[in-house]
């Protein structure tokens, strides 16, 4: 019998799937949380709650319908419109996230190494083409080492920055400009949007592992703990960036600024770790996008390289719009689409749980 996944295993998998380069750059935290100032803590709490709800509900559905396929779990009644919507929208989400990761890599090179933005984005594109065409085994091994390094880097820079806050006055802090998105029209929707585009990436992981948990109680508490970790990390970075908001509020990569405050070589190390964090997300999104494009157009193996190169080329040119601007446009749009998926999942959950309760009452 295979070893069942524990509470900690589920929590780490859930949190690790969502926490990535977006957290490590600090840009998402500025736009979705800190821009709304006095509402920041409430937004963190709302995001934590929704991370739980839309982590637990798909996992419960997978267990209830006994499936490891996330589309079968969230659309067990085979609604054709929703199937098409999910297929197209998840492809857009993968490609949109890929473009943002390319832009982030370009911005990292520009900010820290003073190279043109296209250099970093082009380097990632070349690596993506090579890795996807040859194979993913090596990059998986590399990321197993680099991902913990990224978390460690965030923790070290964050703790140091909290212990050494900015000397800005309260008035300067209150008047500090902060990056924002015009598509996030009110603080009450911000936390929900943040979860709506993030939970889609976790769906493909949460659904299979829900069937590998020891029991429903283990699954429940694993997702509770994972949600608390996600909310805690967001809250921690809010405190870190708020302590230096005058300095980093309008910056494209605020965490690199804080790393530079420690020393230039720590800033360089953080930039390298962030670059590979962006790359680790990019390779997953790129591989998924290529596979979906090939399936949509029913392409043969001989066309694979063409699809790989074309996907990288389109992603590269789109990334030139810029990291900060793309986060303020693409992620909110993906979030609004994600809310539609959330509503449908909630409908399926209510329908399934009513059937379950009805069956129990009859027995």
UniProtKB/TrEMBL annotation:
Source species of the chain: Helicobacter aurati
Keyword match Ribosomal protein: no
Keyword terms: Membrane, Transmembrane, Transmembrane helix
Domain of life according to the entry: Bacteria
Keyword Cell inner membrane: no
Ranges annotated as spanning the membrane: 40-61, 81-103, 115-133, 145-163, 183-207, 219-245, 265-287, 299-323, 329-350
InterPro entries given in the database record: YkvI-like
Protein name in the entry: Membrane protein YkvI
